[in-house]
Amino acid sequence: MSKITAAITAVNGYVPDYVLTNQELETMVETTDEWITTRTGIKERRILKGKDMGSTEMAVPCVEGLLKKRGISAEEIDMIVYASVTPDMVFPASANILADKIGAKNAFGFDLNAACSGFIYALTTASKFIESGTHKKVLVVGCDKMSSIIDYEDRTTCIIFGDGCGAVLLEPNKEGFGVIDSKLYSDGSGRVHLHQKAGGSMRPPTHETVDRKEHFVYQEGQAVFKFAVTRMADVSAEIMERNQLTSDDVAWLVPHQANKRIIDATARRMGLSDEKVMLNIHKYGNTTNGTIPLCLWEWEDKLNKGDNIILSAFGGGFTWGAVYIKWAYDSSKK
Ligand code: UT7
User: Fold this and answer.
1) How many angstroms separate the alpha carbon of residue 306 from the centre of ligand 1?
2) Which of 61, 85, 149, 231 could serve as a FRET partner for 55 with CA atoms 20 to 30 Å apart?
3) By the 8 A CB rule, do 173 and 3 touch?
4) How do strand 79-83 and strand 108-112 relate by DSSP bridges?
5) What is residue 172's three-state secondary structure?
6) What separation, in Å, do the N-terminal and C-terminal C-alpha atoms of the chain show?
């Protein structure tokens, strides 16, 4: 019997309507469009506005659109992995909230937190349930409402992040398409450079934690940059080497969109020209778990069956890794 692989059979994305431009940020903090553009590549990002709007507000339309595209009902989904650092609540899991909202009555699910590497961790985890034969239709969602944990008086972080959601459906494949290989890393000592100080069990919320702005993203940008730029490039080269892929063999790099300079360094290391690199950071900024599936969604029409695609990410934790997939369908002909 041929081996079962986990193929992506549908992809969708959702970004909120509100566009926060560099020009608007110039009126909020001491910054310039020129600084943001040259240091990060970002021109604008999307923000989910409104009271009591959690990240699943974006995941619901994203997943409903995905199910429609694939022509299946929510009841056919048997598992949901929700990668996020901004779940609706500390508990229960947003996977459960999403399942309830879309009517995925036959699915079990859980949240996965690996910061900006969450989507590739979730994709790898979910693929094992398909490969083992126990699950047939698994949703992998990457979704973050970063605006809920950003201090819009901190110019070092507020210019970077945005809100957005992307999702893929995994199904069994017997022709060798789908997730072929993945290599994931973590190094918890990196937590000092990128974290949210309060709100967890170590420092529960108090008036003081709020006054000290400890519920926002804390990032030492330069330190994170130094690790990100080498680790993301290294692991991308590593996955190519161990699968005997040359730069000619790789059709696309789908990098986490944290900083255009990090993406450029990764592509250079892999020997890829710009045309093979998915890049939408200028429109959406860093949506944390949303970046990679949002790219796949925007580039879907250009993907062909058999394309070798490398997904690559680095994030808080530290976490990083790369996934090698063989695209399973001719999207433009679907
Ligand atoms: O996705 C999760 C992982 N995260 C990352 O991968 C992020 C990695 N880090 C980065 O992308 C970059 O470090 C940043 C974009 C966050 C910052 O860029 P940088 O080139 O590393 O700038 P810097 O922090 O070294 O700051 C340079 C200068 C400083 O001023 P002085 O000390 O040289 O006078 C900052 O105060 O730029 C200043 N600065 C700003 N100026 C205008 C910092 N933020 C801003 C700003 N506008 N928004």
Assistant:
1) 39
2) 231
3) no
4) parallel
5) strand
6) 28
Query: 156 CA distance to ligand 1 centroid (A)?
Result: 6
Question: pLDDT tens, 151-210?
Answer: 999 999 999 999 999 999 999 999 999 999 999 999 999 999 999 999 999 999 999 999
Q: Could you list the active site residues?
A: 116, 256, 286
Cα dihedral 10→66→287→48 (10° resolution): 170
Q: How far is the CA of 286 from the centre of ligand 1 (A)?
A: 14
Do 25 and 159 touch, CB atoms closer than 8 A? yes
Is residue 16 within 8 A of residue 47, CB to CB? The reply is yes
The whole-model pTM stands at: 0.97
Please report, as a single letter, which amino acid is at residue 130: I
Map residue 319 onto helix, strand or coil. strand
Atom of ligand 1 nearest to the CA of 156: 44
> Rounded to the nearest 5°, which phi and psi values hold at 29?
-135, 170
Residue whose Cα lies nearest atom 44 of ligand 1: it is: 156
In whole angstroms, give the CA distance from residue 232 to residue 217.
Answer: 21
Domains belonging to the chain, first-starting first, are 5-179 (3.40.47.10), 180-333 (3.40.47.10)
Here the tokens at position 322 are: 């790369």
Is the shortest distance between the CB of 155 and ligand 1 below 6 Å?
yes
Instruction: Give pLDDT tens digits for 15-24.
Output: 999 999 999 9
CA dihedral angle for residue 171, residue 175, residue 179, residue 183, rounded to 10 degrees = 150
Closest-CA residue, ligand 1 atom 2, reads 315
Tokens of 107: 């699915």
Closest C-alpha to ligand 1, atom 30: 156
CA 47 – ligand 1 centroid, Å? 21
Evaluate: CB of 263 within 6 angstroms of ligand 1. Answer: no
